[in-house]
What we know:
Structural class: mainly alpha
Distance between the termini: 50 Å
Amino acid sequence: SDVSTQMAYVAQQQLDGYDAAVQHAVKRKAAFDKRVLERTPGEVIFCQGQLVQFYRSNLDYTFDAKRKLLPKWSPPHRVTQR
């Protein structure tokens, strides 16, 4: 019984951590969108067939030597639908 209580506690902590990470990402996206829209007003709309790349900002401040060598930009992706 004590073990199952501890396992439930650990599982809840993992869910709480995931929720906190998602909430933080939502706040960061809102701040980023606000900053971008102030600089260049309007929505960026990608059309079907255009090539886009994703920038992986999580590699900017990494301390892992292996991750520093990874490319920060994704390979080109073609927009298939909107």
